[in-house]
Design a protein that fits this description.
5-stranded parallel sheet, alpha/beta, 447 residues
Length: 447
Amino acid sequence: MSGRVLVIDDEGNIRRMLAALLEAESYEVHEVASGVDAEGACEAVEPDVILLDLVMPPGPGGLEVLERLGQKHRDIPVIMMSGKATLVDAVRATKLGAFQFLEKPLTPETVIVTVKAARDLAQARAEAAALRAQLGDGDTIVGASPPVEGMRRMIAQVAGTGARVLIIGESGTGKELVARAIHVQSERRARPMVSLNCAAVPRELVESELFGHERGAFTGATQRRRGRFELADGGTLFLDEVGDLAPAAQAKLLRVLEDGVIQRVGGERDIKVDVRVVAATNKRLEREVEAGRFRSDLFFRLNVFPIAVPPLRERGGDLPLLVRHFARQAAARAGRAPREFRPDALKRMEDYSWPGNVRELGNVVERLTILGEQDPVEASEVDAVLGAKLASTVSPAEPADDLAGSHDAYERKLIARALARAQGNIAEAARRLRTDRANLYRRMKRL
């Protein structure tokens, strides 16, 4: 069997023709004569592909049925059919998530090719879901600490409102996970979520990335290109590190937030977009406003509903949960069983300050997974990967008895912190300390 197809059409001849055609291609075909029965049939049949007529009097029309199906069955590709469709109908169907729009009279070749493409898409989505289940959902916010539970409640409160959200948190805390959680819990979840790291794009190209450009707008613009706002139309645009936007880009972003209209770089035509903007920053934007580096009016537009993402050091009790989560993911990627962690290994990890937050923890667990030959993970392995004796050996709470000892303790603390942030890479730690590797080795030996 090639898969299950549900045909929803009020014309019996069309249903019979499609059934005969698709059954000859080894599909299992189910028929429904009206939109009233569409949802029930979808629940019962669990089709891989749906063929849906646009006009089905006197009940609900195809677009209404498409919208309803998208709320519960958005992973099933829907092929719209009509002999009376207008361009407006086709555009709306596309925005509601239709896979393809076929004009009647239908041709057998077109139907077969389109259904196969939709079936391939459904299969790819199912495989991707299975892989996510195997790896552990990378989009899951893991943790049960009070700060994380409070953050979850705020996400649930704002997700369905359409309000703009400003996510605030240190680097590596998982701000994009929060943005994705807002998107998937919103009414825009069937439409794309598009991301842009404003700090990673050269300043001269940020406006092109955001708004697109016309051919010939600047050197190298050999063809028209749609920007992130157009790609996210109907969905969500996540602007990471929004505090790094240049003043010119800030002004244009403000205009879009005010009237929902963009202009491509080098273009003259206004393009209307419907985009929910979720922004994130690791900066204190209030201070950036005071310093004149960030527009106050843009800050107020973005900061409708702020959500603070707690750093890992403030998430008491979450580290073991995160370690197990990352261990499962890393093991699945490496094709091996996840490693367990001894209590003393977890204690060493809990004693560490994790300046790189959850991202750094994930990297460390993956490294332990790759390097480890046997279970469980020992405390000595954690020490080796972090490249330092962790927080317990560099505690500033133990004052030295003399000036020399005080100097040594401070130097030891600086070196240990640099090693931790460089994840044990001596050359990188030396660069952070503004010295060379040989000198750093000498100082480490002396200490």
